[in-house]
Amino acid sequence: xxxxxxxxxxxxxxxxxxxxxxxxxxxxxxxxxxxxxxxxxxxxxxxxxxxxxxxxxxxxxxxxxxxxxxxxxxxxxxxxxxxxxxxxxxxxxxxxxxxxxxxxxxxxxxxxxxxxxxxxxxxxxxxxxxxxxxxxxxxxxxxxxxxxxxxxxxxxxxxxxxxxxxxxxxxxxxxxxxxxxxxxxxxxxxxxxxxxxxxxxxxxxxxxxxxxxxxxxxxxxxxxxxxxxxxxxxxxxxxxxxxxxxxxxxxxxxxxxxxxxxxxxxxxxxxxxxxxxxxxxxxxxxxxxxxxxxxxxxxxxxxxxxxxxxxxxxxxxxxxxxxxxxxxxxxxxxxxxxxxxxxxxxxxxxxxxxxxxxxxxxxxxxxx
Length: 368
Fold this sequence. Notes:
Blueprint lengths: L1 H25 L1 H8 L22 E3 L24 E6 L17 H13 L8 E6 L14 H24 L5 E6 L1 H14 L8 E7 L25 E3 L3 E2 L6 H8 L17 E2 L4 E2 L2 E2 L7 E5 L4 E5 L5 E3 L5 E2 L25 H17 L1
Parallel strand pairs: 2-3, 2-4, 4-5, 5-6, 7-14
Antiparallel strand pairs: 1-3, 8-9, 10-13, 11-12, 13-14
Helix pairs in contact: 1-2, 4-5
């Protein structure tokens, strides 16, 4: 599985690099032609009531013991899954086809990659409790490269699946503390979920922490709609964390250009506003930490053919815009996104610190 995980990371980064390169050289028109579906949007059929009661609608949940990617831990980390929290994790985009706007639930390739993402990301939380990670009819990669109504329709359809899964998750966890976590497209859905299902409700008081990783969160135009404050210190619960990782020199212009032309969840423009940047090494915003404080970065030991943690490898600091800078480009693999964007590695860079962070915030939460 470790070798497959490396292949997955390499393949997805290569695709993302190629896409970004095409965009920079030939522009949005060619990028759209290459990745955006040309077919007319077709509304996915309703799942029906009780769909998420089926075990087959989940990649991870407590009654899945075989082939559950969220139960994995790297070598040297105890597989301790007896925490008291229930974790709801939304995986990032793993579907890239142009034949339709939303991934079919039976698409084997996207399911394979989704499991590998869950293995490398959601596994960081399995020490805090039981991880629930739903299948959902995600919007295809090309939906994020166009302003067509079809694209927003696809994103909305994906969100409806996520919301349905979350409702079932809550029905099975009526009283337990909850950790919310996601990456990339998953984080986009998590933000909307928090706005519509958490903010201003009793449920907000049950949230240990929300990890909105790999998606920009405006402190002024998004955060007020999410129902929880940003985490400002390590020993704090009931708050939100978020970051986007770049090595230096960092060119954040692609992310910033999209960010600056969009509206936040409050309806206000994001342009000119600062992004949420939690330093995963300190647990606090707008801070800096040396590499020695990094408890472990996921890395593959080629000789042993196993994924292991490498401590003390990666520093981190937040810049003035709210991007997380990790120093010179680390040797995690041969490919990164243009501009030294380490988006795919947002979790892997700080896997052990995320694990420790979730466990510590759960302890703080349970004391109150």
